[in-house]
Amino acid sequence: MTDTYKLYAIKYGTHDPRPASQNFMNPPDPHDAPYPIDYFVWACVSENHTVVVDTGFNEHSGGRRGRTMFRCPVDSLRLIGIDPDEVTDVVVTHMHYDHGGNFDKFPKATFHIQDKEMSYITGRYMRYPALRNSFDADDVCELVRDLYKDRVEFHDGDSDLFPGLTLHRVGGHTQGMQFVRAWTQRGWVVLASDAMHLFANWQHKNPFPTVLHIGDMLEGHKKVVRLAETPEHVIPGHDPQVLDMYPAPSKDLEGIVIQVDLPPLKPVPQA
Predict the structure, then answer these.
(1) What are residue 100's DSSP bridge partners?
(2) How far apart are the C-alpha atoms of 39 and 184, rounded to whole Å?
(3) Which of 132, 182, 227, 233 is the most buried (most CB within 10 A)?
């Protein structure tokens, strides 16, 4: 029997000011207008399972890159009643510093990652600064230590994690980039993470410039939309507009947490 999930997106940081040229391979504005991005972690909660999706950056890792951290992404889970000490399953969509840090704050968790991502982050491509700059070596080492503690589960392509919760590899952004699809009260919702950074990347077929394989990233956009119930069931990984689209679980969490298993308050913005 398929579980029905509540889905939460928690904003923990931002990069503002930030020019549009950093978000698009072909900048859409010749004047390079401001285009900030936000940083999120996500949680999928059913009667039987609580799954955290990505673990965010820490203060040091974000700070040296000029990012603003409003709150610890892991401690932020407590805002929606999730105790990180008791979480047993964490999906790592990919290992960039803003998605694959803080593993030590999940003492009981198994980390779910694609085979190709582990090969990528420990392989020959990491000799090149242009490809390794978005990774943090300490995070990679922590994941390897967790592997030696039998706390890493590998996935090869698309797979069912639990009833109503599936993982889908797309590559593109990184070699093992994956996203999560969850069954909710409004149908299949896709937590795209960096398989689709912004609505505008998909709408204009203009990918985010941090990329290993451009073609795979563009094909990944199509896969994200295809596996969602409708385009309004896609949650991009860094788009600030999602905070205005969906309701908060409570008034005191407005601007911090949204519940994306609920119908949007407004349609997908047209870029």
Answers:
(1) none
(2) 23
(3) 182
Domain that holds residue 110: 6-259
Alpha helices in the chain (DSSP H): 59-63, 115-121, 129-132, 137-148, 199-203, 214-227, 242-245
Number of compact structural domains in the chain: 1
Dihedral sign for Cα 236, 239, 240, 245, please: negative
Cβ pair 204, 198 in contact under 8 A? no
Maximum alpha-carbon separation in the chain: 53
Identify whether 182 is part of a domain. Answer: yes
Burial of 37 (0-12, 13-18, 19+ CB in 10 A): buried
Count of Cβ atoms closer than 10 Å to residue 5 Cβ: 25
What is the rounded radius of gyration, in angstroms, for the C-alpha atoms of the chain? 17
CATH of residue 57's domain is: 3.60.15.10
234-249 as b/e, with b when 16 or more CB fall inside 10 Å? bbbbbbbebbebbbeb
Q: Which residues contact 211 (CB under 8 A, 6 or more apart)?
A: 25, 172, 173, 217
Put simply, whether the predicted model's pTM sits higher than 0.70 gets the answer yes
Q: Do the domain assignments include residue 248?
A: yes
Pick from 122, 42, 34, 23: nearest CA to 80: 42
